[in-house]
Amino acid sequence: MKLIFIVILLFVMLAVLYTTVLGDDCLGCQIFKGAIFGELGSYNESIECFEKAIEIDPRCKKAWYGKGKGFQNTGRYNEAVECYDTAIEIDPDFIYVWNDKGNTLSSLRRYNDSVACFETAIELDPEFALLWSNKGLQFHLMGRYNESIECCDKAIELEPQLKLPWNNKGIVLFALGRYNEAVKCYDKCIELDPKYSVALSNKGLALSRLEKYDESIDFCNKAIELTPEDGWAWRCKGEVLFDLGNYNDSLACYDKAVELHPRIYLAWYGKGLALQALGREDEAKVALAKAEELGGEELERYLATTQNS
Description:
Helix 12 runs antiparallel to helix 13. By secondary structure, the chain is an all-alpha fold. The relative contact order is 0.05. The chain has a domain at 195-303: Alpha Horseshoe (Serine Threonine Protein Phosphatase 5, Tetratricopeptide repeat). The chain has 18 helices and no strands.
């Protein structure tokens, strides 16, 4: 990890050197710098570089795409979509823009529009496994589980070594109450990437539903150890602890989850239940109202599948 950071830092220094020598009107330098700043997570600096690139060449599709990525990564989704639309106007066959526009529309909960983006991208490249996986995730979020599994299976058929469709298929199977099958999908995902914390915490949650609580906690802890800033992992551990009747520790995990990622509605919902269990009704009402505000129909679907499983 340290070596990767040093390499990226060297690229930044090289980009700055090129800009110093060639001037701010060097299109390639600004795009290069913008990409490197994006990799470093310095999204505002990345956006500034791409804006300079657009000033140099307003028809540069890579600059509009890069600026859109910066907005997407900072939660400015509507602005990201506008940038992606401009890039698509310049080059309608720019497949990566369609993919990222689909992901951004998903963040805005415009799932039908998101699916349409992935379908357009798939028409451009039917063998691109990630597009099928992303399309499948949208169907899951819409409660169209059979179609979601079909898309995940297609992605796996095209690229069995791609971890995301295995994780996404596990999520759908979990929602259907098919926990043993979900665990198998998460296992395959973890086999492909042992440090993929999302799959580790998802497996922990599935094991909890199978009442394998010790293993469940172990996987949640492993996910947190790998990525302590991952709010989803804390949320999963909170649910497992709640199932064990450990309400104070469960609440602490949910608090950590919403501190890290305030928009995880299931963390707010779990926090509300933990507060209720502790007799703190007024606080519980606030947390549950927040969960409903953020989750909407998705929360209702989650509760329906939970009650039916």
